Amino acid sequence: MSLLEDRFLYFPLRRLDATPARYRLRSEDLRLSTSDGVRLHGWWIHSGGRRVVLLFHGNAGNISHRLDRAKLFVDRLGVDLFLVDYRGYGLSEGRPSESGLYRDGFAIYDAARDRGFAPERIILLGESLGCAVAVEVALTRPCTGIALETPFLSVPALARVHYPFVPGFLVRSRYDTESKIARVAPPKLFVAAAQDDVAPPAQARRLFDLARSPKELLVVPGAGHNDAYVLGGEMYLAAWRRFLDAIDSAP
Predict the structure, then answer these.
(1) Is pTM beyond 0.90 here?
(2) Residue 55 and residue 51: Cα distance in Å, rounded?
(3) Residue 79: exposure state from Cβ atoms within 10 A (0-12, 13-18, ≥19)
(4) For 108-139, what is each residue's pLDDT tens digit?
(5) Please, which residues bridge with residue 45 across strands?
(6) Which positions ≥6 away from 243 have C-beta within 8 Å?
């Protein structure tokens, strides 16, 4: 059952389909080691260097499929990005698991600190499954803000939507953002996709209701699970700018 669950939860791709140079992005390779000795690969995408966004990607593909988002953030928001693949994705070693992805998240954060980014310059961005990783990191490492795009409450809550015939006690993975979000203190941005058929927007709204202020919820009309940042256009960028302003004005 554990092997079957992993096949439904993780969809890693090993081949990198693009590099930052293809998008005319300045970058350097990152080679990180986790607390359990797994070697991860990623890129530090350079912009102005004032802030860095640590992007914890979703459960499919790899970091090469997030380079269009990196281009958008560099060109329109002027932030650096850390794009690092979880274990088992891209050029990173190992095999994905919930505890493993949390370790990967800590290693990515620590790499940003080691490269000179103080907590007040670090923003966490999770997409889908990566939202749970971002929240776990935020509970143990200081940061200045956290953005959660197309989040879900937990794997069991998602399983009840998509696989209602599967008994709950058989679901091993938790990724339980619902029980943790109220303890996350920094400013928060939630982005939901109105037509999301993977992570229902009602679950993002529930997380928003549970979260502390300051916080904002953006629901992107017409967007599906993977294209909120594309279809959101200027509305999406405006929400991010308000989020960055909230960070600047936070005590």
Answers:
(1) yes
(2) 13
(3) buried
(4) 999 999 999 999 999 999 999 999 999 999 99
(5) 27, 81
(6) 145, 147, 187, 189, 216
